[in-house]
Each structure stands twice: as C-alpha cells, then as structure tokens.
Design a protein that fits this description.
Blueprint (H helix, E strand, L loop, with lengths): L1 E6 L6 H5 L4 H5 L4 E6 L12 E2 L9 E2 L1 H18 L7 E11 L2 H8 L3 E5 L8 H7 L2 E4 L8 H13 L32 E3 L2 E3 L10 H19 L1 H9 L5 H11 L8
Parallel strand pairs: 1-2, 1-6, 5-6, 5-7
Antiparallel strand pairs: 3-4, 8-9
Helix pairs in contact: 4-6, 7-8, 7-9
Bound molecules: S-adenosylmethionine.
C-alpha cells in the first residue's frame, strides 16, 4: 500500500509518521508514504504555486500547472515502482467531500493506497479536480487551513488497522467497528479518592466473569449510542447487527431503565 502526498507543507508529516503506535506501519513499509513538495513543481522563476482567483474575490487559488506536473511525476513513479497497479485513486480533501467514516477507512485500509492532494488557501483550481480527482473526502462540517491534517487523519486511521500494528486486536472493539460507539473504560485505582468522596468502578468489571463483562460492555455501548447517536442505532438495526438481547436492552432504555451496572 502506498500513499503519495502532494503538499505545500511536507514538514507537517514527519512527527506523525514517526511517533506513536502507527509508526510501526509506516516504518515497516506496510503503509508506504511518499511526500511530494508541490513547490518543487512550480513552473516560474519565483516558484509560485498560487494566484488570485479569476472573477475576483478574497484569497488565492492553488495553480493548476504545478499540480498537473506533480501528478504526472507521481503517476510515472508509481507506474515504475508498482508494476501491477492500475491508475491510482486520487483523493482531494475538501469540505465539499464525502464525510470520512470508519467504513471508508476500512476500505482504504484494505486497498493499494492513493495519491492525496492537500489543498491550501481557497483551494485548488477546479480543472485539476475535474481532470484527476476520483474521491473527495471531508473531515466534517468545518473549515481547516489545509488538507494536510485531513491526509494525516486518513493515514493514521488506515495505519492502525494494518495487521500487527495494534498490540491487541483492540480495533475490533473501537467505536464504529461494529457500527456503535464504544462505552466507558476504567483502570486503577479501584477506588479513586476525590474531594467529592470515593469514586468506584462498576462491580461487574472486577468480577472476572468474561461473559458478564462482555454483556455489560455491549449494554453500555448500546446506551451511549442510543443517547448520543440514535442514527447509528437505526443503521445497525437496518444492517441486522442488533441481537434480540440488544433490542431488549434498547427497549428497556426507552422505558427509562439504565442498563445494569450503569
Ligand atoms: C481554507 S481551506 C479552503 C476552504 C474553501 N475555500 C471552502 O470554503 O470550501 C484550505 C484547504 O483546507 C482543506 N480543508 C479545509 N476544511 C476541510 C475539511 N472539512 N475537510 C477536508 N479538508 C479540508 C482543503 O484541502 C482546502 O482546500
């Protein structure tokens, strides 16, 4: 799997690719990342990569020509290095894209990689998008200063799903893995002394009874998801992911009962 990142700020990637649990995937080459500094592909003597928008208006637009040249170079290099790979997916990060979710991350994590285009300023010349982009991805309904953080979010999410990257198969229990939010977690001490008095942990977690703990966690996950994201419950139900016991717990929540141990 190889991601080629076209960016004006390659320096932003270093720390994220070399720190934390995901560095295993990057250092080991499971997820290869190549950075392509866009300024290297500027076509004029001033190494300009942006200019004013036609029609006026605030801000600058990333120029088409350096992006076209960079994309041609990336494609040629990928074709030489990855002989059996077809034309790569080209991702543009933009608030106008499809909001990123775990299902998309899982699909990218099982794929061959992509070319990632990081926008800056007011965005990139539309002709580049029309000619090359196969996927547009948004982080959500807000605006950040550049596509680099969005690219890093995708790379991190993909890297942690690679086999052997997480110490335990904890990704399977993360939020969204089964379509629901993950419930609360506790660690030592059993009794936290606070100014408001001692704060304990749910007794079931100390019971050592694995089936009861698993059921409690599932109930907490259902309760949290029903409270915060009822849309996810509806989707899980439509996908046939809720058991009869899950439905019983949800029905009791609707009647106002807290799940056992909550
Ligand atoms: C300042 S933003 C440009 C926003 C653009 N003028 C607009 O209103 O849609 C600069 C770059 O940051 C990235 N960006 C900003 N918000 C984003 C989001 N929610 N998701 C993904 N990328 C985003 C895009 O690559 C964008 O080209």
């Amino acid at each position: 799997m190889r991601f080629d990142v076209v960016t004006l700020f390659p320096e932003l990637f270093g720390a994220h690719l070399t720190q934390g649990i995901t560095r295993r995937a990057f250092a080991g080459g499971q997820v290869e990342v190549r950075l392509w500094p866009l300024r290297d592909f500027a076509t004029d003597a001033y190494r300009r990569v942006d200019d004013r928008p036609f029609g006026g208006g605030p801000g600058m637009v990333m120029l088409a020509e350096p992006l076209e040249t960079a994309l041609a170079a990336v494609r040629a290099e990928r074709a030489a290095a990855l002989a059996d790979a077809g034309p790569p997916a080209v991702v543009h990060f933009t608030p106008a894209g499809r909001p990123l979710d775990q299902a998309q991350v899982q699909a990218w994590a099982a794929g061959r990689g992509a070319v990632l285009l990081c926008g800056r300023y007011e965005g990139i010349d539309q002709r580049v998008i029309d000619r090359h982009v196969t996927h547009e991805i948004s982080l959500g309904d807000y605006v950040i200063s550049g596509g680099e953080l969005a690219a890093l979010v995708l790379l991190d999410a993909v890297a942690r799903l690679q086999p052997g990257v997480l110490a335990e198969p904890s990704a399977a229990e993360d939020s969204f893995a089964d379509g629901l939010l993950e419930g609360p977690a506790y660690s030592r001490p059993e009794l936290l002394q606070t100014a408001d008095g001692p704060a304990g942990v749910p007794a079931v977690l100390l019971s050592g009874h694995h089936a009861h703990i698993a059921r409690w966690r599932r109930d907490q996950s259902l309760a949290l998801t029903a409270r915060r994201r009822p849309d996810l419950i509806a989707r899980a139900r439509a996908a046939g992911r809720l058991s009869a016991e899950d439905e019983r717990v949800l029905a009791s929540l609707a009647e106002g009962d807290a799940p056992a141990g909550a």
